[in-house]
Design a protein that fits this description.
By secondary structure, the protein is of the alpha+beta class. The chain has ten helices and 13 strands. It has three domains: 115 residues, no CATH class; 43 residues, no CATH class; 186 residues, no CATH class. Strands 1, 2, 3, 4, 5, 6, 7, 8, 9, 10, 11, 12 and 13 form a 13-stranded antiparallel beta sheet that branches. 29% of the residues are buried.
Length: 365
């Protein structure tokens, strides 16, 4: 079951209207065609979260507590490149001998390739890909395993066609607007490097600004924070670390193995004006420990959840979704704290000076 076991990679999307369990009827109207109907053209549509052949979309199969669990399925037939190449070469050799020539014109080669493809395609098994999703009715969010731009560009219009509204990808910029009514474009770009000859980036880098500040705050304050409901949690960062700065030289630097957080290489990256773009984040709440690799654009990768207590599939799924919510809630609570600091001119200037001093001393013996 997608989202039901193992580590989880996901993006969050804001929903532009409130939905309830009746949304399952819209998903059922856009169910994927049967796999045995697959021909030359791809087919796509929704299936349940249980497995890719389960087209029985209904309350009892998709709605679990305050969640709707489904998958966007795409099925197509493909000829493996190596197999296609071998058959094409064989057919080209036969064609050359029949024509008594050493080389075939480009148009003839294209015709041979098309003929071979048409011959092989009906014999190929279906290739299945899916994007698991969870509609969170309580938080008006779509949680989806759409990690690449291509998957996001596929899922968003598919959901709009199904539910009637386009989901909005949760990024630092959209979260700032939704949570604090802050337009990231109104914030002056900033450089954390103590090197005054370095110009700030041309465009706002809100996510990387937050990530770099979080590293600083964790080292200086110990990483103890609070959720809006009063729960306390701890946060820490681990490597590998990815740094980024647009401009001359190497735009991206990745530090692996050893202790990258304490390395001079990390200090050099910060001194050169780079900001933290990706790192592993560990969040501890009570006796539960969560860890994930997070991108500065708020993509959550390989989130490891605490061991749950539920034994049945539905109970385990709902328990895990609540754990996932605990994680992203803690992350966004940290982001809220950063936004409040970032928009307080006096406090931000003080923090900026402290960060530059921290970077200037970074890696010193």
């Amino acid at each position: 079951m997608a989202f039901g076991s193992g580590s989880v990679s996901f993006r969050l999307f804001y929903l532009q209207q409130q939905y309830d369990s009746s949304l399952v009827d819209a998903f059922a109207r856009h169910v994927a065609p049967p796999i045995d109907s697959l021909g030359r053209d791809p087919i796509h549509g929704w299936v349940t979260g249980r497995h890719l052949f389960d087209r029985a979309i209904a309350d009892e199969t998709c709605v679990i507590g305050p969640y709707l669990h489904a998958q966007w399925l795409r099925a197509e037939k493909k000829v493996p490149p190596a197999l296609l190449r071998a058959y094409v070469q064989m057919e080209e050799d036969l064609e050359c001998r029949a024509r008594e020539v050493e080389f075939l014109p480009r148009a003839v080669r294209a015709e041979v390739k098309q003929r071979v493809t048409d011959s092989l395609l009906p014999k190929m098994p279906p290739t299945l890909t899916s994007i698991p999703v969870v509609v969170d009715f309580r938080n008006d969010l779509l949680v989806a395993s759409a990690m690449s731009d291509k998957q996001i560009d596929t899922l968003a219009p598919a959901f709009k066609e199904t539910a009637g509204t386009l989901p909005i990808l949760l990024t630092p910029e959209t979260a700032a607007m939704r949570r604090k009514q802050i337009n990231a474009n109104d914030l002056e770009p900033v450089s954390f490097s103590p090197d005054t000859t370095l110009d700030p980036p041309n465009e706002p880098t809100l996510g990387m600004d937050f990530f770099t500040w979080l590293w600083f705050a964790w080292e200086k304050e110990g990483g103890v924070c609070h959720l809006p409901d009063g729960r306390e949690f701890g946060v820490m960062l681990e490597g590998p670390l990815t740094f980024f700065r647009e401009g001359q030289g190497a735009h991206e630097a990745v530090l692996r193995k050893g202790s990258p957080l304490n390395s001079r290489e990390a200090g050099t990256a910060l001194l050169c004006g780079k900001k933290l773009k990706r790192a592993k984040v560990v969040i501890a709440h009570s006796d539960d420990v969560f860890s994930a690799t997070i991108d500065a654009d708020f993509a959550f990768r390989s989130l490891k959840l605490p061991k749950g207590e539920q034994s049945d599939a539905d109970g385990r799924f709902e328990e895990r979704m609540l754990m996932i919510e605990t994680f992203w809630s803690a992350w966004l609570a940290l982001f809220d704290r950063f936004l409040e600091l970032r928009t307080d001119a006096q406090a931000w200037l003080k923090t900026l000076n402290a960060m530059r001093q921290w970077i200037a001393r970074f890696g010193e013996p």
